[in-house]
Amino acid sequence: MKVLALKPGHDGSVAYVEDGKLVFSYEAEKDSFERHSDLTAQVMFSALTACPDVPDLVAIGGWHKTLPGLASAVAAGYHGLDPSPIERGRLLGHDVLLHSSSHERSHIFGGVAMSGLDPENELAVLVYEGVLGAFYYWRGPTEPLERFAALDQPGARYSAMFALADPSFPDHGRFPPSVYAGKLMALIGFADEQEPTQDSRNVVDSLLDIRSLYPFAKARYRKSALHNVGVEDAELCRAARLLSTRLFERFLDVAVRSLPPGLPLVVVGGCGLNCDWNTLWRRCGHFSSVFVPPCADDSGSAIGSAVDAAVAAGEPCRLEWNVSSGAPFVFDAGPERTGWRSGTFDAVGCDDVVGAVAPSRDAPDVSMMGSRPAPETGGG
Question: Can you give the pTM of this predicted structure?
Fold first, then answer.
């Protein structure tokens, strides 16, 4: 069966799966386009050009409208564990089947299919990202999924702390950008051995207790020393470490209380790109193994929608894949020279290169087939 799957919204992507093999997955942010880009006409046309044949089944990942928000559904919507029915439709004059996965299911099915684990066995799945934050008990691809809520919006809580310290982020009416989450995670590595202040502890408690951070009411923290302190502040790094520790402890507590020990763990969602957390999952002793796909974030959602659609059509929940399934990287120009230094990379290291590194114009043009690193199995 040939499946063409589309991921709307940010981290837009298109995937094509044929008889359980990933033929390609094209991401809209590739080729130095804006990070977290929505699916574009250019990527869609490139994907249609690369399709070896008209698909038998078209899968659309569930999403939400900008207004009124997460409660409004695009296709199967953002939340939901129930499978969707197969429908009939037309594409380019051909009869095709149509299917939609909720965004939640696309993460789960993508991670399980890419893991190489036997999908007919029991598994634990963790989905944590900007919105979703829960464990799932997987008993088979056609069996009901059981959800164990841990904490909604874990990624947004990282982003909110970074926004709190960032003077450029306004006090009212803005959503914390998703790119802030990774920035705060990076700052944890700069934390010293000092304990965070009581003020920082109060901020962490508050950020963990808030029901929603969309939008983030930054003004309520004006009396905190972290408010607009700057993103290179030492105390911010300590507070970030505390927030990360507390978040992990909360998720681990839910896992231990809700899931039997010894299950393999599949980790998906944008927070699955946090190598420190993945190392902790491997070392916690509750799971027999840990698998994290290279496209754990929303860029892998199209792949998950394709797998879910194939399962709905009676196909196995398996996927043959590799990291060279993306489009060749187009190196058309380096960044603006202001504020950058460029240098060639050598095997010894790049300690002599200061600041951000841009490719030299004299360097060979290397075709980067895979847009992401090799799959991680829980290590740092």
Answer: 0.87
